[in-house]
Give the backbone structure.
Amino acid sequence: MSGNAASRRIIRRETHSPRTVAMVIAAVLSIVALAYLGTEIVLSLLLQPALLVSPVASGEWLTRLPEQQPVWAIITAAAVLAVIGIILCVIALTPGRLPKHQMIAEGRAVLVDNAVIAAALAQHISDHTGIIRDRITVGVSRRVVDVTVAPDAGLPVVDSQIRDLVASELEHYQLTRAVKTRVRTPQPHKGTRS
């Protein structure tokens, strides 16, 4: 295996998470449902009372359902079940994402946690604007950097200035996946005297 292929495989392994938790939950729910169904079938064969609903009664209810319920209710229920099934299939087939970004440093691939990038950006903004670090909140996701700056009263902050600071710093990081920047600068409310 070549070095590049091995490097890509390692990066993918470190940036994607397996769906182990979702798979375990789905397996446990399936096992519980099948165990219940098996128990009801055995009780029915032994002519014992059902725990909740006997298989015969549930089968009769299903066959009478189109006569007892309006068509729109059945179609709505079927659509909801189809959407749930599609969501479960997507979860099963697509890998999860870990909160990391890949950057290029001296020709090598480096993985950096999103929290580290967020902290570095917040400190960069603080250093260049004079706003104390506690008034800057940065969130980094797979595609978006979300910056909220809450300056002290009397200290004007221009969104475009913050956006330019973030863009220049991100360019310095050389992230392999481009991210968008959202900046919010809520202005402090002036107090009223009574």
About this structure: The chain has six helices and seven strands.
